[in-house]
């Protein structure tokens, strides 16, 4: 069992798994904008290239639920991000492509006892970065500038861990999924941020 908490400790989860399914570097505009919006509310400033941690969506206990709120960047958004409304840490992200098998959080934007020793398996959406020179990607990490072309999508699926992470769960979780928790928090707030616009 592992814990995952916001930076101020007001809210968080106990997780039934301690090791991530996957880690990725991500330069996409939405990840960076979501972290920037949190920073404008008092959260930590994002790194140039955020690191995403994917955990099995199997949550055994919730703490500080009254301090959790779900947001989407825009009306047509697919990702739903769960923030602490005190410190504006993003403590979980749900996306349809995760198939309720995993959820994601940003490394160094939460406090956790999860085993974070796993190296990122790939760096994705590097075309979205305003300054690619600031993205320090280790030489042995596969790089994906975009997924516009089928060959890049196929190459990505061959990266170790990708297929297993984004498939339907092999078994029913012992606890709750992040998606189920989000449904209990009331309406998701739509931020209506301008797409791709930096907030910092």
CATH architecture: Beta Complex
How many H/I helical runs?
A: 4
Q: Measured on Cα atoms, how large is the radius of gyration? A: 16 Å
Unreliable spans are: none
Determine the N-to-C terminus distance.
37 Å
Order of strands across the main sheet: 9-4-3-11-12
Q: Structurally, how many domains make up the residues?
A: 1
SSE order, as H and E?
A: EEEHEEEEEEEEEHHHE
Q: Describe the biggest sheet?
A: 5 strands, mixed
- Which outline best applies? globular
Question: For this structure, what is the CATH class?
Answer: Mainly Beta
Q: Count the strands?
A: 13
CATH fold name, please?
Metal Binding Protein, Guanine Nucleotide Exchange Factor, Chain A
Mean pLDDT comes to 95
Structure class: alpha+beta
Helix fraction by DSSP (H/I, runs of at least 4): 10-25%
Our estimate of the beta-strand percent is 25-35%
In short:
The protein is of the alpha+beta class and 200 residues long. The chain has helices at 29-40, 150-157, 162-165, 178-183, and strands at 2-5, 12-15, 22-26, 51-56, 59-63, 68-72, 80-84, 90-94, 102-106, 111-112, 123-124, 143-144, 189-190.
């Amino acid at each position: 069992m592992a814990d995952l908490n916001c930076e101020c400790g007001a809210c968080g989860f106990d997780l039934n798994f301690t090791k991530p399914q996957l880690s990725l570097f991500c330069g996409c505009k939405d990840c960076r904008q979501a972290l920037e919006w949190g920073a404008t509310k008092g959260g930590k400033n994002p790194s140039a290239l955020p690191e995403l941690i994917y955990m099995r969506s199997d949550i055994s206990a919730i703490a500080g639920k009254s301090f959790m709120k779900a947001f989407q960047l825009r009306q047509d958004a697919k990702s739903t991000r769960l923030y602490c409304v005190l410190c504006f840490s993003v403590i979980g992200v749900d996306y349809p492509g995760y198939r309720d098998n995993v959820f994601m959080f940003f490394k160094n934007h939460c406090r956790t006892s999860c085993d974070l020793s796993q190296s990122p398996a790939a760096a994705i959406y590097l075309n979205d970065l305003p300054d690619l020179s600031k993205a320090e990607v280790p030489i042995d990490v596969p790089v994906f500038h975009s997924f516009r072309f089928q060959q890049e999508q196929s190459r990505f699926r061959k990266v170790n861990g990708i297929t297993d992470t984004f498939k339907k769960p092999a078994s029913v979780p012992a606890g709750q999924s992040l998606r189920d928790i989000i449904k209990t928090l009331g309406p998701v707030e739509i931020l209506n941020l301008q797409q791709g616009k930096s907030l910092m």
